[in-house]
Each structure stands twice: as C-alpha cells, then as structure tokens.
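The freezer alarm interrupted the setup, so I double-checked each line after restarting. Inputs confirmed:
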Amino acid sequence: MSPEIFFQIIVNGLFTGGIYSLVAVGLTLIYGVMVIVNFAHGEFLMLGIYVAFWAFTLMDMDPYIVVPIAFVLIFGLGALVQRGLVQRVLDAHPLNQIILLVGVSTLLIGLVQFFFSAEPKAIHVPYETAVISISGLRLAIARLVAFFASMIISLLLYLFLHYTRTGKAIRAVSQSRDASRLMGINVNFIYYLTFGIGAGITAVAGVLLAPNHRMIPTMGQGYSVIAFVVVVLGTMGNFIGAFVGGLIIGVVEAFAGFYLGGDVKIIASMMIFILILLFRPAGLFGRRRT
Amino acid sequence: MTVDKSTNTSTVKSHTWLRDVFLDWDRTQMVICFVLVVLLALTPLFINSTYYLGIIILATIYAFIGISWNIVAGFTGQLLIAQIIFLAIGAYTTIVLFNNFLISPWVGILIAGIVSGLCGVVVAFITLRYGLKMDYFALFTIALMVALRTLFLKWDYVGGAVGMWFGLTNPSFDKMIFANKAPYLYIALGLVVIGLIIQYRIYRSKIGKYFLAIREDDDAASALGVNTSRYKMVAVVIGASMAGVGGGFYMMYVTFIEPPQGFNLGLNVEIVMAGPIIGGLGSLAGPIVGALLNKPFAEIMRGALAEGRSGNSLIVYGSFLILTIMFMPRGVTGVLHTIYRRIINRFYPQGTGES
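Predicted 3D structure, all chains:
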C-alpha cells in the first residue's frame, strides 16, 4: 500500500468518524445522565437529514444554514420525548424502557416514511462533488466541512459541560441524581435538557451528512448500531471516550472497506463491538460498570 | 406470584371441574386462548376473501412466534431484542433443505427448529459466559443481527442479496403447498396450540418458577440457589427453536426471504415483539391476544391511510408499543386480569389463591 492511499484511507476514516463521534457523544450524554440506552438515537439523525431535505426542496435552503434550525427543532422533540415518555419509565424495569424507545424509533421511522415515502432521496447542492487536493490527498469539501463542524460542536459541548453552571449541573446529575437534587439542582429540567441536547446534536450530524448522503427512513438504525459500538468502545457515559471511539471506528471501517469491500465493512465494527462486549464491557476508558 | 393452588381450591367446598378452571387465572387464560383458537379455526367458513384470510394466517403465525419470544423475554426477562435472527435462520434452513436437498418442509421445519435451537445455544453460551445482561445483551443481539445480515448478503449459497424463494409448483401436501389458504391457517393453528401447551407446561412447572425468579431479580434468584445461567440458556434455546419452526413455516407461507427482510429490526417489532408486549409480556394469553389485535388493526390502518403511502403499520406498531408501556405496562391481559379479579372477588370473597 502506497503512503498516499494509506493517508487517504485515514483521512476518509476520520471524516466518517467525525460524524460517528457527534452521534455517539449525544448517545453517551443521554446514557451518562439518565442511564438509559436510547434505542431511538439514530432516528434523530434521520430526522435531521430529512429536515435538511425538507428545507432544501421547499425553501432552497443550504444544509449548513439549516444546522441551527434542525438543532432547535430536534432539541425540542427530544425534550418532549423525555418529558412525555422516558421520564415516566426512568424507574421502571429496563425491559420497559427499551421497549418504549424501540416504540419511539418505530413510530418516527413510520412517520417519516408516511410523509416522505420510503424511496431514497438526495439533495443536490452545487458543491456536492467539489474536491480539493492537498499534497496528493483528495478531500471532498462537504465531508471536510462536516468533519470540522463535528469537531467544533463536540468541543463546544465539552466546554459547555465543563465551564457553565448548567453544564456542571448536567455532570453533577450524571454523578448522583439524589445529591444533585439536595444541592438545589432541578433534576427533571436537567433531564429534559440532556435528552434535548443529545437528540439535537445527533440531528446536526444528520444535517451535516445531507450534502452528499442518500437518505432513507430506516437509515437511522445503522447509525444507532454504530453509535452503540462507539459508546461501548469508549465506555458508556464517557464523553471523551465516545469522541475518540467515533474516530477509531471511522478509521477501522475505512480500512475494512479498503480490504473487504464497502458493504462488508460493517462486519469489522460488529466484530470489534462483540469482542469489546465480551472481553472489556467497561470499554477502553472505563472502570467496570456496577 | 401465584401461591400453591391445591390448598386454596380445597377450601372452596363442593368444587366442580369448571370452578376449578375459572378460579385459576392461568387456566382461565388458557381457556381464553383456546376459545380464540377455535374462533380462528372457524374463520374459513365465514371469510372467503383470500386477503382477509391472509391477514388472519399472518396474525396466527405471529401469535406462535410471539409465544417463543414471550418465553425468553416475558418469563426470564432477557432482552433478546433481535429474536428475528432465529426466525431468519429457520426460514433459510427450511428453504435450503427444500430447494437444494428436496427435503419436505414438514421435516425441514423441524430441522429448522433444531438448527435455530443450536444457534440459540451458541448465543446463550457466549452471552452468559461473559455475563452480558439487559441493555448489553440487547445490544449484543442487535450487533449479531447486523453482522449476520451482512454475511447473508454476501453468502452466495443462500442467494446473497437476491434472497431465496421456491417456485410455485402444483399444490401438494408433501411440499406444504396448497391451492387455497385454509390449510395454512390450520397448520399455523396447530403450531399455536403446541406453543400454548409448551408455554403453559413451562409456566406451571418448577422451571417456570425459576424463570420468573430470574426475571424479578437475577442476583437474588442466584443467591437462593437457582442456576440462573442454566435456566437462561434453557429459555433462549426453547425460544430460539420455536422461532426457528415459526420462521420455517413463515417462509413456506410467504415463499420468499432476503437478508434485508430476514434481519430487520422493523419487521422484528412487527412479527416478534408487538404481540406479546401489547397482549401482556409474561402472561399466558398475551402473545395470541396481542397478535390478533395488532395485525388486523395495522392492516385496517394500511387500508384507511394507504393511497400509495407506506409506513402506516410502523406508525401503528410504534404507537401501540408506546401507549402500552405508558398506560398498561402489563398489556391487555393485565387489564383482563384486573377485571377478572374484581369479578372473582365479588363472587368468591374468600379468595382464589391469587395474591
């Protein structure tokens, strides 16, 4: 393998991985605070990409302008899902929580299929196939932008969680619900906020994919599975772990795609997932879950 | 939990056979199930439309597959989210045996059950060996499903991405191909009856009590000397073999399978999960009651809202799951149980032995 191809694969992997990181960060945030696995997570990404499609075809809006709109919309939806549904099963049997979220996922896929049909859709922006070359590396503009946007959003979220009062409150709740409540934190509000943010940034990941990605209503399930892989790899509930894990899985998939062919590359991540689940369920960054 | 029945029934003086049955909720549920089975068996006399009969047959198959999932998820509380894996393996086994080895589906379906059961042994062994529970177990099964889908897509022997089907030849009993739909219904009902009996026998046996103990508290059950690993595996293997048989028959009925369909979470919700959950997960009548409510309702919605749009059935199943968990977590059977208890308490205030 020549060095050019090697670096090209790494760059492609990182570009994909950036999106995975963003999705996984949302999932890990929700898990960290509420200790539920959001089985409907990928559906928020799917909704994001359909918001971009809808804005583009209806109002001719560029996907990058849609980013904040999608964030606000899906943030609201996420907060509503938390407030109306998940909140009420937080203390229920985990079976009920998972069934509920599988129901939410099924409902969202059904609704999108109903309104947009199950046919694959795509939007065509002028820079769709634009590529820049830097010393032999070919970088698709849309994916470059998506990568840096994911990095920036993850960084902003990290700063938010560490340097604002609300962010600190979120982290406090993730450490102990009861102690936070005693310290005067409105725990329920933090829950709505967390689910909203988790869903919102996942939708942003979807919007960032929109310029060069075909969309179907069931696409979210693939991303859910990838996000599960990443989050388990990087320790459930660990922000940095999810971020790094996303990039790792992206690069691994890129190499697997090169050696095995595009449609079999998912096998590589599934193998990693199964091995991590079996041999190190606490993930790369974690102590063992109690 | 039910308490020892014998002491309680003896307190009811001059008991009759009928009273014995109806004072026992488990047996009452079985009566409900068998009434439903008889009603289903009579439908071909009244319904001529192959479309409606088709829906009833699918609902019956879903009821059988629902029972298989109920034993795993309902009795032992293991989140085998992607049960459809075993269904697909059963379906593929049956069609491969039928197409490539000319083995009659009657035998093929049984072999499918064995093959799926063996896969269940493997899955249970791996997950138990490494102590995967609840959400981790659920994630494992989903990962396995995605991996298998990709493998089957690339596996030419089972048709790869094209899938497998059998040509509709002349109807013949040997090949389980019939000219009209009624025979399929009766085979499906036969499976449901067998499934109901297996389910009841397990539920009332000592193993059933172990299963429920594992569901309520895994660690406590283990501390009380229940070999939790063994019984979890038993449940998965029973569920997987039944799903394999169900998948094999489903294959013979729909005549076609392809990897994106066979390993599909949406279809998994429709075929496997929706029935038991809405009917009442962990109850005896749940899977059949749920399946008979779901499938026809989803079809009505499909008809009412169709106009070339898809996704209706997903909306129905999704909302049903959400509404059930929010408003009646014990499902329709749970509601029936409440009503039943009121009636019984009214006529037999001394109690029925139910806590």
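Quick read of the result. The longest strand of chain B covers residues 164-165.
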